[in-house]
Amino acid sequence: MPDQPLYLTHPALDSDRVAHGFFTRSGGVSTGIFAGLNIGIGSADDPEAVRRNRAAAMVALGLTPDALNTLYQVHSADVVEVARPLDPEALPKADGMVSSVPGLALGIATADCAPVLFADPGAGIVGACHAGWKGALGGVVETTVLAMEKLGADRARIAAVLGPCIHQQSYEVGPEFREAFLDLSSDFERFFVPSSREGHFQFDLPGFVLSRMEASEIAAIGHVFEDTYADPARFYSYRRATHLEERNAAGKIDYGRLLSTIALRD
Fold it and tell me: Is the overall model pTM greater than 0.90, yes or no?
């Protein structure tokens, strides 16, 4: 029997009406480079292992095994409403999701990008988004808040928590990456510091995402302060897998995906 899946929570999202969890890779049935709780249907892992991992995560949160809904994530600012279980054969291409339906878990898959979970328990509205640098720069956090408001949420009541992601000390980028931010605002300079390599920089992804959360003027903001790159025992990391050249059975660099999820309780 695999170990029980382990997940992190944050008090900003604590509510009798809401279940949430930022899952680590601990637990699960995947093996090899995917060892643990890989929920990534886009990985080359055994599909049955991924299915069992996804179901185990839901059960760990007290939800039904088939409660999880995930997206075909494309690093966009697009957000969809989930009013019924998503068809796994036709997943929406989007990076944010909102719902007012109890029992439907909204799941974000990450392996260094930033997951953000949102809730307005009073209105019975939850949300989740995948904030890689492109999505965060494009406004996925702000768009998720707006989509929640369209369902009846009030940003003066919304709490949001940023989950485990790659941190500045682990995230070196080139000059063109930095320029993409500075072209939009010189204020974004504060999220970059010079790296040890000439002409390169260390980017503060969690700092940038938190700034987008703050700009949305929501009621409460939390941060699960964990660096996915720096902790291979607990987290999958795309960048670490690339640096270590971890390859799947087909010889391609591959990696597991972490789950961050939120649901209204029945």
Answer: yes
